[in-house]
Amino acid sequence: MPNKPNRWGYKMFLLAGGESGICYDFILYAGKSDKQEYGFCTNIVLDLCATVPRAINHKVYCDNYFTTIRLQVELKKLGIYTVGTVKPNRLTDLTMKNKKELSSEDRGAMDHRIAEVDGVTLCVTRWYDNNVVNCLSTLHDCEPLYPAERWSSQQKKTYTNCKTECYKNL
User: Fold this and answer.
1) CA-to-CA distance for 73 and 140, rounded, in angstroms?
2) Domain assignment present for 3
3) Rounded CA gap, 145 and 169, in Å?
4) Would you list the DSSP string of 48-100?
5) Can you give the residue ranges of the PiggyBac transposable element-derived protein domain (predicted)?
6) Count H helices, E strands: the chain?
7) What's the confidence (pLDDT) of residue 9?
8) Given a cut of 50, is residue 86 above it in pLDDT?
């Protein structure tokens, strides 16, 4: 992490429960390892998920630092669903609407694609709110289920936005 004020030291990566917040596993990282099978971020998450029981519908949520296509494919092969925000540069060879096109459609505009990688179905969603958010998922489909409610700070009330919709599971 070259932009951190103190680039040297220890880093701790945790696997924690969503509702409970209980730490199920952790890795204390002190430097490079010899294992470079998939890349740093993917290897960290795969190591943390080594203790997660397989094929009983466990779900892992990641931020854009960890989410990669390779991670999602490997976890799905282990029977673990994944959802995460993803950096646009990790979605190579994927043609979607850009920020300018989505912003012209107003808040709540979205674009999505379904892709198959190594026999695993991935759903990529690009959604525009105040900025563009990219989401990669093996858990959720790209088909809308129902309109989502949003808070309008200008109107000071909740309203239903037909463009912003929630998704069902794959």
Assistant:
1) 14
2) no
3) 10
4) HGGGSPSSS-EEEEE-TTT--HHHHHHHHHTTEEEEEE--GGGSTT-----HH
5) 1-156
6) 3, 9
7) 73
8) yes
Please indicate, yes or no, if residue 1 is contained in any of the structural domains: no
**Separation between Cα atoms, residue 66 and residue 84, nearest integer Å:** 8
Under 8 Å between Cβ of 169 and 140:
yes
Q: Are strands 23-29 and 120-128 parallel, antiparallel or unpaired?
A: unpaired
Pairing of β 11-16 and β 132-137: unpaired
Let me know if residue 63 belongs to a domain. yes
Question: What is the dihedral sign for C-alpha 42, 110, 139, 84?
Answer: positive
Beta carbons within 10 angstroms of residue 127's beta carbon? 19
Identify the band that residue 166 occupies on the pLDDT scale cut at 50, 70 and 90. Answer: very low
Q: Which domain holds residue 66?
A: 11-169
Domain count, the chain: 1
pTM of the model: 0.77
pLDDT at 161 over 70: no
